Amino acid sequence: MSEPLPRDLFDPACPSNATPFQIGDKWAGMVLVCLRDQPRRFTELRVPMHRVSAKVLTETLRALERDGMITRTAHDEVPPRVEYALTPLGRTLFPAMDACRAWAAEHLPAVLEARDDYARRSA
Amino acid sequence: MSEPLPRDLFDPACPSNATPFQIGDKWAGMVLVCLRDQPRRFTELRVPMHRVSAKVLTETLRALERDGMITRTAHDEVPPRVEYALTPLGRTLFPAMDACRAWAAEHLPAVLEARDDYARRSA
DNA sequence: GACGCCGGTAACCGCAACGTAACCGAGGCG
DNA sequence: CGCCTCGGTTACGTTGCGGTTACCGGCGTC
Question: How many Cβ pairs closer than 8 A exist between chain A and B?
Answer without folding.
Answer: 83
